[in-house]
Amino acid sequence: MNRPSIKEVAKKAGVSISTVSRVLNNSAPVSEELRKKVEAAVKELGYYPSNIAKSLRKGKTKTIGFILPDITNPFFADIVRGAEDFLRKKGYTLILCNSDQNGEQEIQLLETLISKHIDGLLFTGTGSFNLLLEEKIRKGLKVVFLDRIIQGINSSYVIVDNKKGMELLLDFLIKSGHKSFIFINGNKETFSAKIRYEVFVEKMEKAKLEYKHYFTNFSYEAGYNFAKKIRKLPHAIVCGNDLIAYGVIDAIEEKGYRVPDDVSVTGFDDILFSKHFKPPLTTIRQPKYKMGMKAAELLIKIIEENKFLNRGIILEPELIIRKSTKELKK
Ligand code: RIB
């Protein structure tokens, strides 16, 4: 459908283009008669002004890009909601993109967002080093990493204290008598999986406990398929996120075992369904909405002050104890 131009509106109304512009922008007085003619022509032609020219003149489009790795994971929904609520209040529009945990797709999305002249970018990376992103940040693209830092790229970030979250969870499991563990973790290239792995191994070695660790990916299927193959159950199966834990619980119970009677299972994130799961999931709550809001707030500060900031905001995790874990006799 051809979009009517301001020239066609002027012709239809029998006035000059500058009169149409004055009426549309209320930029100078226009007689009631001419105003009515212009408004009638705008309505008849279905004209609406293009923001592109105005934005490019101002050097701002009031749009923010957000690239995240898995749109199907409810963890990110809460984060996006927190970011968008803040951005809307500041008059910005969010353009949301899903990289599907795929490095190539992530680069293509970044190129597309840059071609749309975004004012800034919220970024939860797949974890693969993104040379284009590093170059764009060096050339002035305003970016805040959300939930996942990219090693080797300097930028502001908002994350949860993953180390503290894992320590809270493992201290709870050890104190409640668990002595053997399997950790079914998320994608090994991601910041969050890496740091949780490091804390887990350090804690297991220090407490001289029996443990195994496996990187998979942050999905229900990964948890389900891995748990199906487990021959000997440990006291506890620690999962990289809640989706993995859901898959583990379903697989374990399909094999005729019960959670937590035969094995305790824990998650990470505390997404919406975890308190309703069967059994309700013991997990680490991430302050998802606040993470999104704080990241958007920091990005707008960087944009409006037009300066590079290398500021880190680390938010508090919370241990949420439910019925997927049990006290073991000492
Ligand atoms: O659920 C997705 C996981 O990856 C979360 O734990 C979050 O930290 C992200 O990095």
Helix and strand layout, with pairings?
Layout: H1 6-13, H2 17-25, H3 32-45, H4 51-58, E1 63-68, H5 74-89, E2 93-98, H6 103-115, E3 120-123, H7 131-138, E4 143-146, E5 156-160, H8 162-175, E6 180-185, H9 191-206, E7 210-215, H10 220-228, E8 236-239, H11 242-254, E9 264-266, E10 283-285, H12 288-305, E11 312-315, E12 318-320
Parallel strand pairs: 1-2, 1-3, 3-4, 4-5, 5-11, 6-7, 6-8, 8-9
Antiparallel strand pairs: 10-12
Helix pairs in contact: 1-2, 1-3, 5-12, 8-9, 10-11
Domain HTH lacI-type: 4-58
Organism: Thermosipho africanus (strain TCF52B)
GO molecular function, one term: transcription cis-regulatory region binding
Summary?
Residues 4-58 form the HTH lacI-type domain. With 330 residues, the chain is α/β, with parallel strands linked by helices.
List the secondary-structure elements in sequence, H or E.
Answer: HHHHEHEHEHEEHEHEHEHEEHEE
Give a quick account of the main beta sheet: strands, pairing sense, barrel closure. Answer: 6 strands, parallel
- Separation of termini? 74 Å
The CATH topology of the largest domain turns out to be Rossmann fold
The figure for the number of domains is 3
Into which percent range does the helicity of residues fall? 40-55%
Distinct small-molecule ligands in the complex: alpha-D-ribofuranose
CATH architecture of the largest domain: 3-Layer(aba) Sandwich
Determine the strand fraction and express it as a percent band.
15-25%
Strand order of the largest sheet: 2-1-3-4-5-11
Average pLDDT figure: 95
Number of separate strands = 12
Shape: elongated
Number of helices: 12
Could you list the spans in which at least 5 consecutive residues all have pLDDT below 50? none
CATH C-level of the largest domain: Alpha Beta
Instruction: Tell me the structural class.
Output: alpha/beta
Alpha-carbon Rg, integer:
26 Å
CATH superfamily of the largest domain: Response regulator
